[in-house]
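Entry 12.
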Amino acid sequence: MRTATAPTVRAALTALAVFAATGCADDPGGPDGDGEPDDDACVIAVVGSDYASTTIATLTEDGRRCRQDVINSGSRPPGVVTALSGDVVFPSTADPAGRLVLIDRYPNAVLTFATIDAAGALAVDAQLSVATGFSSNPHDVAFLGGGRAYVTRFASNLDPTPFEGDFDEGGDLLIIEVDAPGPAIVGRVDLRHLAGEEQGVALSPRPDRVAIVDGVVWVGLAHLSTYFDRGGPGLVAAVDPVADEVVEVVTLDGLENCGHVAAAPDGAGLWAGCAGVFAEGADSQRAHQGLAWIDTAVSPPAVTRVAEGVAFGWALAPLPDGRALVTEFGQQGGAPDRLLLVDRRGG
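Predicted 3D structure (C-alpha cells):
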C-alpha cells in the first residue's frame, strides 16, 4: 500500500473528482468532424462545493480550463426550475446520450440534465425532482440503456402514504425514464426489507453508490439508523435491471457504512469502501473501517478484506491492474488526508 501527502494528494484528489465527471461525453460531431474530440474541446466537468454553494467548471481532455463557472448555485439559466444547492455530485455511470447529469442531493433531491458544447457553454435540457414529497437525498444514478435508469435514494420516508403509485417510500432504487419528451418516474425497487436493527434500533438501507458488473447493478448500502448513530454490517445488493428485483445480497462482516462501490475495469468484480460509524467513537469506527474486494465471478461472490483500518474518505477509483486509488481522512491537528494505492491481492 503506497501513500502520498501534501501537494501530491491535492492533485490526486482533483483527478478523482474528474474521474467521476463521466456525464460529459466527447462530441463525435465536434469541430474536427472526424469522430475524434478536438484537443481544445471541453469534455470534462468538475464540481466545486463547500456545502453552502456549488459551481461547475469545464476542462479540456488534457486538463486545461475551459470555463471556470458554467453554472452555480446563484445562476438560473433557461430550463432551471430549482437552483443548485451546496450538495451536488456526479453520477458514477455515464448518460448514454452524452449529457452532463448533476445530482442535487439534500435537501433539493433534483436531477439536472444538461448539454455542454465544445466551447464549454452549458444548456440545461431538463430537471427532474425525485423527492416525491420528502427530501429523498439521491446519491447516484445507474444508466441502464433503453432510456431507463436507477436513482439511489439514500433517505427513507418516515411517514409514507399507503398508496404505492406515488413512490414516496424512499430507501430504494427509483426507476426513471430519461429520454424524450422528458425524464419521468415510472417505478421503484424497494430495498427497505434488507435493513436490520442494531441494539434494538431499526436501521434503514441507505442505498448510496452503484456499480454495474456484467449487466448486474450492485448497490452499496450504508445500513445506518435514522440519526446515523447506529450501523449494521456492511451490505452490497445485486439488482437484476430486467426484472427490477434484488437477486443477491453480500454481507461484509466486520465492516460498517459500506455505501461506496466501484466496478473494476477488467470486469472481475467490485470494490466497496466502508467508513464505519462516526457517532460510535474513534475506536469503534476504526475497527469497522476499510475496503473490501468482491469477486463476482464465483457463486456466491467471494469477499476479501483489503487495507483494514483505513479511514475511508469517500473517493474510490479502481485501476485496470487490480489496484485502486482511495482517499483516507486525516485528523484535525494530526495526520493529514492521504491518497492510498491498494491492491486487491493484498496490501
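Annotation: The first strand starts at residue 2 and ends at 4. The CA atoms of residues 246 and 327 lie 30 Å apart.
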